[in-house]
Amino acid sequence: MNINTQHKPELVCPAGTPASLRTAVDSGADTVYCGFQNATNARNFPGLNFTPAELEESIAYAHAHKAQVLVALNTFPPAGQFPLWANAVDLAYNLGADAIIVADIGVALYAKNKHSDLRLHLSVQAGAPSIEAIKFYCEEFDVKRVVLPRILTITEIKSLKQEIPCEIECFIFGNHGLMAEGRCSLTNYATGLSTNMDGICSPANFVSYQVDANRNLRTELNRFTIDSFSCSQNPGYPTICKGRYTVAHRDDPYYAFEEPLSLNLASLLPELIAAGVDAFKIEGRQRSKAYIQSVVSSWRKAIDSVLEGGSVNMDHLLSLTEGHKQTLGAYETKRWR
Amino acid sequence: MDTAQGNLTLGPILFHWSAETKRDFYLKIADESPINTVYLGEVVCSKRSPFMMPYYAEVTDRLTRAGKKVVFSSLAEIMTPRERKMTEALCHDEKYEVEANDTSAIYHLRKKPHRIGQYCNVYNEETLRYLALNGAHHVVLPAELPRNTIYIMGKAAKTLDVSLEVQVSGRVGLALSARCYHARSYGRVKDNCQYVCEHDPDGMPLKTLTDQSFLCINGIQTMSYGYLNLLPQIPELMEMGITNFRISPHSLHTDTIIETAHSILHGRITGEQATLIIQSLLGDVPCFNGFYSHAAGYEWRNHTHALSR
User: Which residues of B touch A185 (CB under 8 A)?
Assistant: First the structure.
């Protein structure tokens, strides 16, 4: 029943701009993912993403270099605004995208009915971590690949792989979100912009930095304090699930959800390949060209090396994690939970 | 049966109360409350589920005899084999209707009458139409939907013969995780949590470094610190075609909140009076209605008829 797991896993890389897309392709990406300049994708940041003309050129560039382009349409259209998403599906199809990445049932159904030959990937934003949830999307919408939430262990991924009729894509590097994707309205609670509907987490126009009486730098999201840093520390971007808080039964503030860590699964790469993961995804459409170049080429080498029976040397990726400590997240052990 | 009159529903208990406390709470609801529909079942953490099992027979019997409709809510996050089995068994129970809170429950409920809970992402009329054709006849809208979106969903639901429900009271679930943050706060993990969430019958408040009350932790769930109060909007929601109004249970004052909602539903008090009653019960804990007004969720906006989106 399963697709062959002996094939070479795909390296799936982010592109926030046409320039980073070319960089990712040139650095060894098998596949690049990107989005349009509106709420139809979950990285709806000012200055990021593609116009239709840019996407058309970028797809031509990628295809000329034997790389594929996935278009993320992975937010949830609010009632009354569905045409924006429907148009984006049509546009991605007409421009020759190799697949679209969807989360909303309505969007998936529209794509399946309108363009039966358009390949659908299920976004991590759909929050489908179980056999039945994934089978639902495969059977109802003919989804060909699922991007797994970052909450499963390798053992769980391996057994999942045996039971589902589609490919598996896993995050291996980058920002490490703590909440189940597609099921978080913390940003909306604090700012009025919705991650699911507007495609924004911790919007920059609500972020401020205040210096307090002790000359500590305080980061705020709208009116809420997220963290505080001494002058010798590198202040992190204020994201609610990475902030420090207090609770009644603890004396000191603590990272209630998680310390600011970056996901780096380099050391687990051989196991992930053996588990049958079909595609490895690097997070970070908001990242610079230089970052993309360095990260993508490092992972290209790592995957090729493992496939040839070699080892992974990823030391220099450490320098790209912005002083963050690294984590294997949920992948290694259930004790993460 | 849903009627144009409007129904009050009691959402599932989201917190870890002792099974005896839950039983007593439900027996009181059966005996004294004008609630029409009661949602039972564990939504947040599968580890809490076994405790209530011995009491469901008594509770469902008493609620049913009192004329309440009983629905079982499924887990909001399903990952482990045990959670998958629990959910499958629940969905194949023929006696009570099931509210799906995760896609794996929808998988099992396809083509039979069921409800969709507020942890499923039903944001638009296309998704609603699909779910209706799939057997859903009742949908609880996500708490973050603004008024304009609810308005359009109300119109779509009428043509699809689906009844809609909106949460109008109680803390609101804002996020789910695989990690238990209650356990984490005690230096533990989910597997050896020792059920520390039982210390906080309404959630564990999180304050910011500048002492602002911000969020609440409930196991793997992160909730609002404030209490949603859309009681004043019930008449307007009814005009929009919303027929069911959910009170999310808390350890204190749930009976008074239900009575207040009932009074609003029958036009006996004004929205302003309802808010005064609710705020006097909550003391320092604020009410919020920001999502509905398309403002920041935590905010309290005085009611306006202006369409915001």
Answer: 142-144, 174-175, 291, 297
